Amino acid sequence: MVYFGKMKGHTQSPPRVGAAEILWSWIGSFLGIATVGLIHFHLLDQTSLTMIIGSFGASAVLIYGAVRSPLAQPRNLMGGHILSAVIGVAAFQFVGDIPWLAAALAVSVAIALMHLTKTLHPPGGATALIAVIGGDSVHQLGYLYVFVPAGLGALVMLIIALLVNNLAPNRRYPEFWI
Predict the structure, then answer these.
(1) Percent composition of the chain: helix, strand, coil (DSSP 3-state, to 5)
(2) Taking the model in full, what pTM does it have?
(3) Is 90 helix (H, G, I), strand (E, B) or coil?
């Protein structure tokens, strides 16, 4: 019974945030994702948005909407995406002919490595997974995927987070760097 009792939860949900917090989160996420997309559009090609990987949507929630979370800090954002991208590409290259195994290895090894390096960033798991399931456009990048889109996109979003999150009088970002 103790096992199932753990599933009840033991605290109340957090309070609703105010309108200003919602607005700053909206502004940051809009500018972060738009800037990454604009860079792709001008530097790479005008027909796809390979540089906007799905995990950046989740990163936006953390770095613009949960700025105080340890998982949203620069070390976690950058390290989580970069390390997970390396693991994801490696998993695809070594066992990509067995996609379910490559996907499971990519995510689980990425989580373990993020824990070991104190860079846990949940969207990193998706970054690793995308390296495996992302299709030909992602697979053709090989280890370039680590730099573009994963590293460069995360860096652009970090710069926007630093600029926007510190404009608001009651926000401060980051909480820590290292």
Answers:
(1) 70, 0, 30
(2) 0.94
(3) helix
